[in-house]
Design a protein that fits this description.
Elements: E1 2-3, E2 11-14, E3 23-26, H1 28-32, H2 41-47, E4 52-55, H3 58-73, E5 79-81, E6 87-89, H4 96-112, E7 117-121, H5 125-132, H6 137-140, E8 145-149, H7 157-160, E9 171-174, H8 176-181, H9 194-207, H10 212-216, H11 220-239, E10 255-265, H12 268-289, E11 291-302, E12 308-318, H13 321-333, E13 341-352, E14 363-364, H14 368-382, E15 389-392, E16 401-404, E17 409-410, H15 418-422, E18 427-434, E19 436-440, E20 443-448, E21 453-467, E22 476-485, E23 490-496, E24 499-505
Helix pairs in contact: 3-12, 12-13, 13-14
């Protein structure tokens, strides 16, 4: 399985880090103008003034290779990484129809991300690799293609969709003889050094053997006698006799993407663009591995100063790139930095995908991700510590509450005995009303504030309330009374360090 960028313009890719940059890859439009691999940049521009020169990005290549490897792993656990945008999958023991169907899905998934991919399926790994590179990228790269070489008796007509036109079929089929009939022998990779390879191909050319089909018709003993070990290795490779052992690689445990900018950026748009691309890649890898993200961390490496970290705990573990992007984008839009951003990285903490069914009397948010996004924007205005739901502190502080995170699922409410559990409800004044209180002995007999005044008819108390006296800050100490006035009404009065207050009425 191999990948290659698509373009409708004459475009070439060069390695800007090389001592003498030369053309590495060229589109079909550029080749029609006489531009080919190996030319220097001035030579290429002289042949095509409208040529678009793109620099090679090793970061993007590494990210694409990780994605291709993860998708190939969904076909079989026996996957070998080539390191040049190609992966080899051993389908031994797998059902061909199911494997081909999954190959078509891979082509569609990558095409939706703007990535063109070619997949070759054959008995020989060499033929499969050549099949992956054989089709016309200028025409077929609009959607990619899966090419099956051989296997005529194992493939159903329904899977190949013969009723559709060739351009609409994701899976194509060709006989092995037809495929190798005109395939140049020079396209076959074999492990000889460049000089030996050139001598071997020169000898074959003088013999008139220029195609794979013609070379495969030669007898193995005659090839070994005249071309030696290198000729035998090439013959075994093109005929499928080579004993190829797949070097199995494992899926990476980390779900992380990063990018270092060539020039520092001072706006949020490039960050959001890369964030979306990161999430598209990582979410596709998570779905292949049957994982979901439970926590996300974005790190912005600044040109000057310490990195800035944005963390987001997800309301529900998910592999939906749209939901993740909406949450993280809302957080990044609120970030203000003192210097430009030189690097961005995204790390996802993943867990196994588990489906959970709510109870009969449980309910969940209709869209927990959008709700969390709204809370993030509110937190950016009022502060992180002021968003959530209030919960009473257990230390007994008057009006002592803390904010905790809102749950994604609301549990059912049990039966409450309000009279036994809470008694008479107290309506608090916030803030408490400053009052004057007169005492007779140790009991209050008269109170006055801006809204109420009168003699005390009945009284309960006092209740001493204090806490955190061992701390320098945050301690409190107050005396509370419940009083009933002769005019009617039951009130709570309190004395603390600021004096007497009427806290509320029952």
């Amino acid at each position: 399985m191999g990948s290659r960028p698509r373009s409708l313009l004459p475009v070439v890719v060069v390695d800007a880090e090389a001592r003498k940059p030369v053309v590495l890859e060229a589109t079909a439009e550029a080749e029609r103008e006489g531009v080919h691999a190996g030319l220097s940049v001035p030579q290429a521009l002289a042949r095509c003034p409208e040529l678009v020169v793109r620099h090679r990005s090793r970061q993007a290549e590494a990210s694409l290779e990780e994605l291709l490897f993860a998708l190939a792993y969904s076909l079989s656990p026996r996957v070998e990484r080539d390191g040049a945008g190609e992966v080899l999958v051993d389908l031994k023991g797998a059902k061909l129809e199911e494997a081909l169907q999954r190959c078509g899905q891979i082509v569609a998934e990558l095409s939706a991300m703007g990535i063109c991919v070619g997949i070759g399926v054959a008995e020989s790994c060499v033929v499969a690799a050549l099949a992956a590179k054989s089709f016309d990228w200028a025409q077929d790269a609009l959607a990619g293609r899966v090419l099956l070489v051989g296997g005529e008796n194992r493939v159903t007509s329904t899977l190949l969709q013969k009723d559709k036109s060739p351009a609409e079929r994701p899976i194509h089929h060709v006989n092995l003889g037809e495929f190798v009939e005109c395939l140049p022998i020079g396209d076959v990779p074999f492990g000889a050094d460049p000089a030996s390879r050139a001598r071997l191909l020169d000898v074959l050319s003088k013999w008139g053997v220029r195609t794979v089909s013609a070379f495969a018709k030669l007898k193995r003993a005659a090839v070994g006698a005249r071309l030696g070990v290198e000729g035998l290795r090439l013959w075994d490779r093109v005929t499928g006799k080579e004993q190829r052992v797949v070097a199995v690689a494992e899926l990476p445990a980390e779900f992380e993407e990063s990018w270092e900018f060539e020039y520092d950026v001072d706006s949020v748009d490039p960050l959001l663009f890369l964030l979306r691309r990161f999430l598209d890649t990582l979410c596709l890898r998570m779905r292949v591995a049957h994982k979901v993200a439970a926590f996300a961390r974005v790190e912005l490496g600044l040109a000057y100063g310490e990195p800035l970290v944005v963390e987001q705990k997800l309301p529900e573990a998910t592999a939906d790139e749209g939901a993740l992007f909406s949450l993280l984008a809302a957080r990044l839009e609120e970030v203000e930095t003192d210097s430009p951003v030189a690097r961005i990285s995204l790390w996802l903490e993943v867990v196994d995908f588990k489906q959970r069914q709510l109870g009969l009397f449980e309910s969940s948010l209709k869209n927990p991700y959008r709700f969390t996004q709204t809370l993030s924007r509110v937190a950016g205005i009022v502060g992180e510590d002021r968003v959530g739901r209030p919960v009473l502190e257990e230390d007994g502080r008057p009006d002592g509450v803390r904010m905790e995170e809102l749950p994604a699922a609301v549990p059912p409410v049990g039966e409450l005995d309000l009279g036994r559990m809470f008694g008479m409800p107290l309506r608090r004044y916030r803030p408490g009303l400053v009052a004057s209180v007169e005492f007779q002995g140790r009991q209050p007999i008269w109170i006055q504030c801006e809204t109420v005044s009168g003699f005390v008819k009945a009284v309960r108390g006092p209740w001493l309330n204090s806490g955190h006296w061992w701390e320098e800050t945050g301690s409190w100490n107050c005396v509370e009374w419940d009083v009933e006035l002769n005019k009617g009404g039951v009130y709570r009065i309190c004395k603390d360090a600021d004096g007497w207050k009427v806290e509320g009425n029952y």
